[in-house]
Amino acid sequence: MREKILSEAQKLESSMVEALARLCRKPAISPHNGGLGEEAKIHELEAIISELNLKNISLKIERVEDAKSPTGNRPSLFLECPGKKAQRLCILTHIDVVPEGDRSSWTLDPFNPEVRGSRLYGRGVSDNGTCLISSLFALKALQNAGVENNYTIFLAFVADEEMGSHYGLEPLLERNLFKSDDLVVVPDSGNDAGDFIEIAEKAMWRLSFEVIGKQVHASLPNKGINACRVANMLAYEVDEALNKAFPQVNKTFDPPFSTFEPTRRFANVPATNIIPGRERFEFDCRVLPEVSLDDAFEVVEKIRKDIEQKTGAKIILEVDRTDAATPTNPDDEICKLLVKNVREVFGIEPVTGGIGGGTFAALFRRKGIPAVVWSQECGGVAHQPDEFTEIKYLVNNAKVFALMMAE
């Protein structure tokens, strides 16, 4: 029976590539990031599901209000297929993608995907398109093999993951769509070997600074307060102080230490001969669970106040804080189920560990629902120009999911 399932999954390879390319052609970029949201992609996914002729399934769209969306809301799609057991195996992928960034860095149109050799290229084909398609076609492979799913299958294709899930999973969890005994897999992180299962995530801590100085002509710097210089000083001191104050190491995670990274700088003035009076920048921090975010905030606050006093600039700090959730126990049923079937498909012994954070799994863990994160995916290509997926990874992931469904 299990060999038949694996064989049927392999036969679906070309269909999976075609379906993933279709979804890639429908940009699903957050309206908070300059896009139109997920509506068009959801409808394309509905069409793909209809064409698969899956048996005994029900579909439901859940919408979360969003004033910035052209439709006024953000849609997420849910597919359910009853099994021998009422207990559900839930596989959650996200339908949204990040913008393409610098278009000139791409060698193709990001939203007109191309097959090149063993790979499919395009924005979102890896993050999170590969596993979205794999989870769907896993059920198709199971049905083509004539095998009834053991668990009730619950596939969620969810909006707004890339911008924090405020219009996706976060409010949807409050609608009691998920149950305490659900077995939850979030295939939104992994590696090329397929041997890593994520059971823990760091805290996510994002710092947004706005420096307000005084704009003047660049030939008269003594008449103003250069917000750019103050911001440079502030960023350097915050970076140095946080890394010095919190050197803890936890080998559960990769990397095994907290990361405090200055990342985004916003445009300030339109000409070189203008000293800016306003400067905005951000830090992305992934913090080990044993590090107190309250203590880290005190470090940043001291620097902020000292630089204000030293320079005369005003510095506004906004913090987006997501504390680390309790890790999933490696002995939980979902972890054992995944380990067994990864071992069977790949012939390897998977390991468990932690990552920097940012997946759906943490939201479930905070609700007391154990969740694991796994996929075979191309490392380092997410959010990059010329994002790609290996076509064989589509099939391999589908094989693992299908065997889990039939367990």
Task: Break the fold down into its secondary structure elements and pairings.
Elements: H1 2-11, H2 13-24, H3 39-52, E1 58-65, E2 73-81, E3 88-94, E4 114-116, E5 119-121, H4 125-144, E6 152-158, H5 169-173, E7 183-186, E8 196-201, E9 203-212, E10 216-217, H6 227-245, E11 259-265, E12 274-275, E13 278-287, H7 293-311, E14 314-322, H8 333-346, E15 351-355, H9 361-366, E16 371-373, E17 388-390, H10 391-406
Parallel strand pairs: 3-6, 3-7, 7-16, 8-15
Antiparallel strand pairs: 1-2, 2-6, 4-5, 5-17, 9-13, 9-14, 10-12, 11-13
Summarize the structure.
With 407 residues, the chain is α/β, with parallel strands linked by helices.
Describe this protein's structure.
With 407 residues, the protein is of the alpha/beta class. It contains 10 helices and 17 strands. It has helices spanning 2-11, 13-24, 39-52, 125-144, 169-173, 227-245, 293-311, 333-346, 361-366, 391-406, and strands spanning 58-65, 73-81, 88-94, 114-116, 119-121, 152-158, 183-186, 196-201, 203-212, 216-217, 259-265, 274-275, 278-287, 314-322, 351-355, 371-373, 388-390. The radius of gyration is 23 Å and the shape is globular. The mean pLDDT is 97.
Strand content: 15-25%
Please tally the helical runs, counting DSSP H or I stretches of 4 or more residues.
10
- Helix/strand structural class: alpha/beta
Task: Compute the number of strand runs.
Answer: 17
Order of strands in the sheet with the most strands?
A: 1-2-6-3-7-16
Unreliable residue stretches: none
User: What gyration radius follows from the Cα positions, in whole Å?
Assistant: 23 Å
State the end-to-end distance: 11 Å
Nearest-integer average pLDDT: 97
Which H/E pattern describes the elements? HHHEEEEEHEHEEEEHEEEHEHEHEEH
What's the story with the biggest beta sheet? 6 strands, mixed
Shape: globular
Share of helix, binned: 25-40%
